[in-house]
Amino acid sequence: MFKTNRCLLRVAVITVTAAVLALAATANAGSTQTLSGTFVVHFGRGVGASNGSCPVQTFCGTGMLSGFASGTQLTEFTSLEPIDDTACADVTITQTITVSLGTLVLDENGLFCSPGASDGAPSSPSDYGHPHTIQLRYEVDGAASTGIFGGATGSGTESVEIAGDVGKSRLSGTLTLAS
Known about the structure:
Blueprint: H1 2-27, E1 32-42, E2 58-65, E3 69-82, E4 88-99, E5 102-113, E6 132-140, E7 153-163, E8 166-176
Antiparallel strand pairs: 1-2, 1-8, 2-3, 3-4, 4-5, 5-6, 6-7, 7-8
């Protein structure tokens, strides 16, 4: 009898959890909401890379996408074009954020800059890297996104500050989930 009650309790908990997740997904469908998130990347020089090894020309991080829980971030630079006589470059980036409910893909463009003359400063074997900033605008790529984010639309900004072995990313904008 006790085993049967435990089994029924497990089924009830799983059913309620699934219903809450489904309700949360449909409650926000079609309505525009604030999209915000914070992610941290460790490049591997100080404490090791955030998520083990990343593909070449990508950064991997971990963090939180508000309203959708913790997740991972994969940043792929698709172009980096230096701007003459500046310490900046025009960049395009594909940002892939994965949480338990799906994958959100952002197409981004903006400026990657080195403050002052920091890239020209000498470095040493114990140097973790020079400071950089990245200011980006993004559009949600609903066609490439999956799960709850499939078909979504939205836009916003991302601000990234890199100092030594750590990069901190902050997303801010809007998101409209597909109906």
